[in-house]
Structures are given as structure tokens and as C-alpha cells.
Automatic annotation (TrEMBL):
HAMAP family assigned: Rib_5P_isom_A
SUPFAM superfamilies per UniProt: D-ribose-5-phosphate isomerase (RpiA), lid domain, NagB/RpiA/CoA transferase-like
Protein's recorded name: Ribose-5-phosphate isomerase A
Metabolic or biological pathway: Carbohydrate degradation; pentose phosphate pathway; D-ribose 5-phosphate from D-ribulose 5-phosphate (non-oxidative stage): step 1/1
Taxonomic source organism: Methylocystis parvus
Annotated active site: 108
Residues noted as binding substrate in the record, renumbered to the chain: 31-34, 86-89, 99-102, 126
EC number(s) per entry: 5.3.1.6
Length: 240
């Protein structure tokens, strides 16, 4: 039997999470390839009569949802959400995540924090014993970018973390810009043994807007593998 493709597993995780979406919910809509499957499947349910309101975490997701006829709002109009469903670049057994590969980490974190629950949808390849295999994105203000990078390097060294810190580029001569107009440094630390401490120290650096460590936000992770979808965490818990 041919094992399912990564894309098929992503869609299976998205479909499993969609079963928790109920009529009238206020939803945070994530960004990335796996989240795009969820938005696509949600659009099909909306066409069948499901009524929900979505708050997108990126312009890319907003455009996709609009094309599918999903009713959208903003966090200013809808400041509290029932559920956010989003992907992850990697996760561990403690429901800690690294996100930001798609460049939307700041808005994703703001939307997740405004939600009673956050469901993560992912294929099994994203599960790790220790965070850090995926380079950690750190979103920074463009002003003083080189100085901010030096601060990040010092914080990393203080925790025994080594590896290249690379400015994300959109083109050879143009740095990538987030929807908020910020730069992203991708930090290839390989293994982050103390993610909570790293998160706190990065947050203390002037110039760091946010980072891709999502700690204490995910309430459940839907993990799709060759044998189906399993759930880590609690699909009923959480609350503002």
C-alpha cells in the first residue's frame, strides 16, 4: 500500500479539525500550506450553509477566504474568537510550536492569543523531540536591524545556542517584508533545550517585534500520519 503524500496528510489533519467547527463560530484562520487546506475545506462547508466569521492571519489567507465566500472580520471588529486553526513548522509533545516559516508569525500569535482554543494541524513529519530543527523566525523592526541581530546572537550564546542567523530575503537584493513591514531573521539553532527561557530573552530585546516560539497557546494538535489522524492535547479545553 502506497503511503499517503505529505499533502494528503495535511488535508486529513485539516478535515479532522474541521469537525470541531460549529455554526456561528468566530474563527482565526491560519497561514501556510496546511492552513490553506483548512480554509479550502471550510469554504466548501460554507457553500453548504455553514455560517461562521473568520479572522485571517495574513493577506494571503484573506484573499483565499474571500474567493471562497467565507465571511471575514478583523480583531478590531471581533476581538474575541472561539477557535483558531493553524499549522506549524514543528511541534513537540508539550504542545510547544515553532511557527513563522510563512512569514505571518506576529499576526498568527495575536489571533491565537485572542482565541479560546487553538488547534494545530500538521503532518507527522513536523513532530520533533526538541524544537529547533526548523530555523526559528524572529520578526524585527527594520530600524537598527544589524544591532538587533547582535543582541539576538548574544542571547543565543548565553543559552549555548549556535548556528547561522540569516536575514530572510524575497529576492537577492530585497529583504522579505512581513505584512506589518518588518524583517525576519531565521535562526538555525538546531536544538532549543530551553524554549521558554529563549522566548523571554528574545522578548526583552528592543527591536524584536516577536518570535516564532508559540508556548502555551495550542490546546490540541491534529497529527496526520500513514495510519490516520491522532490528537495531542485537549479539544475541549481553553478559554479566555
Amino acid at each position: 500500500m502506497t503511503p499517503p503524500s505529505a499533502d494528503a496528510m495535511k488535508r486529513a489533519a485539516a478535515a479532522a479539525a474541521l469537525e470541531s467547527v460549529a455554526h456561528g463560530m468566530r474563527l482565526g484562520l491560519g497561514t501556510g500550506s496546511t492552513a490553506a487546506h483548512f480554509v479550502d475545506l471550510l469554504g466548501a462547508r460554507v457553500r453548504e450553509g455553514l455560517e461562521v466569521v473568520g479572522v485571517p492571519t495574513s493577506e494571503r489567507t484573506r484573499l483565499q477566504a474571500e474567493k471562497l465566500g467565507i465571511k471575514l472580520s478583523t480583531l478590531d471588529e471581533t476581538p474575541e474568537l472561539d477557535l483558531t486553526i493553524d499549522g506549524a513548522d514543528e511541534f513537540d509533545a508539550s504542545l510547544r510550536l515553532v511557527k513563522g516559516g510563512g512569514g505571518a508569525l506576529l499576526r498568527e500569535k495575536i489571533v491565537a492569543a485572542a482565541s479560546k482554543r487553538m488547534f494545530v494541524i500538521a503532518d507527522a513529519t513536523k513532530e520533533v523531540a526538541t524544537l529547533g530543527a526548523f530555523p526559528l523566525p524572529v520578526e524585527i523592526d527594520r530600524f537598527g536591524a544589524r544591532s538587533t541581530r547582535l543582541h539576538i546572537e548574544r542571547v543565543a550564546r548565553g543559552l549555548g545556542l549556535e548556528g547561522p542567523i540569516t536575514l530572510r530575503m524575497a529576492a537577492p537584493d530585497a529583504p522579505y517584508l512581513t505584512d506589518g513591514g518588518h524583517y525576519i531573521y531565521d535562526c538555525a539553532f538546531s536544538a532549543i533545550d530551553e524554549p521558554e527561557t529563549l522566548a523571554q530573552r528574545l522578548e526583552s530585546i528592543p527591536g524584536v517585534v516577536d518570535h516564532g516560539l508559540f508556548i502555551g497557546l495550542a490546546t490540541a494538535i491534529f497529527v496526520a500520519g500513514a495510519s490516520g489522524v491522532r490528537i495531542i492535547g485537549d479539544v475541549t479545553g481553553g478559554g479566555l
